[in-house]
Design a protein that fits this description.
Layout (H helix, E strand, L loop, with lengths): L3 E5 L3 H12 L3 E5 L8 H6 L4 E3 L2 H7 L2 E4 L11 H4 L3 E4 L5 H4 L3 H4 L5 H8 L5 E3 L6 H6 L11 E6 L2 H14 L2 E4 L30 H10 L7 H10 L10 H4 L5
Parallel strand pairs: 1-2, 1-4, 2-3, 4-5, 5-6, 7-8
Antiparallel strand pairs: 6-7
Length: about 250
């Protein structure tokens, strides 16, 4: 039987990863907070075997689960159903959206470590969140392709990271292990590793509206494993917490 991967959260990024997984031959189980009936159209769009169910049922259906929710919805995750499952964390903490958390604002921990605290019996692996959803789909390449990009991976469990790396390999990306969940800040929102490297070189002198448009409609860039390591090694925990367009592309005043 084809391997099964479950999704809790079906926003743009979750849908994109589900599409890549279905095209790679995985059985896909989708879920969200609004009920399986709201996912009928998405299920119909996916190739192969796809179905929609509740988050708890989705968690029970597969060993590998992608969590792609707004960070503030983390408390809704079915911890008991997820016990023993490897969880791919694609979430980012955005204070303006999620409400301020002192532990994160003061950089005393990482969002993935908080997720691990919420799901103590599930090995957490943070990855597949360094690209925007548009390039996540268009940038996927088969093994050995000269324009195949790499993505950073962090986690505390070596076996779980190896499992996730195999999944990533299948859907079109190389995995670069850059450390534990304590290191996951190195590819969080607002860090240079996040989003920007996968976007082509922007023109000079853009205003804020043009910069925003470039993020969503500009060309893609290939990011090698060595470049991922270089960027994550050089990362510092400075600046604002979260992602702001003006931090991606400083514009002329």
């Amino acid at each position: 039987m084809p391997p099964t991967i479950a999704f809790i959260g079906s926003g743009n990024l979750g849908r994109t990863i589900a599409q890549l997984a279905a095209e790679a031959g995985f059985d896909v189980v989708l879920s969200n907070s609004r009920g399986p009936e709201t996912l009928t159209d998405l299920v119909a769009e996916l190739p192969g075997h796809a179905r929609a169910t509740t988050p708890a049922q989705a968690a029970q259906a597969a060993d590998l689960v992608v969590v792609s929710l707004p960070f503030h919805a983390m408390e809704q995750l079915p911890a008991e159903a997820l016990a023993g499952k490897t969880v791919i964390d694609t979430m980012h903490y955005f204070p303006d959206r999620d409400g301020r958390l002192a532990e994160l604002d003061e950089r005393r921990t990482t969002s993935s470590e908080l997720l691990q605290r919420r799901l103590p019996d599930s090995p957490i692996v943070k990855t597949l969140s360094s690209m925007d959803f548009i390039r996540m789909y268009s940038g996927a390449r088969p093994i050995g392709h000269p324009e195949r990009s790499a993505l950073p991976v962090t986690g505390n469990d070596a076996e779980a990271k190896a499992e996730v790396a195999r999944f990533m390999d299948t859907i079109g990306y190389d995995a670069v292990d850059i450390g534990s969940l304590a290191d996951s800040w190195r590819h969080e929102a607002g860090i240079p590793m996040n989003v920007l490297p996968y976007i082509g070189e922007p023109p000079k002198g853009m205003n804020q509206e043009q910069a925003h448009d470039w993020v969503y409609n500009g060309p893609s860039a290939v990011v090698s494993a060595s470049h991922v390591r270089e960027l994550t090694d050089q990362a510092t925990r400075t600046g604002r917490v979260g992602l702001f367009p003006e931090d991606l592309f400083p514009v002329d005043k």
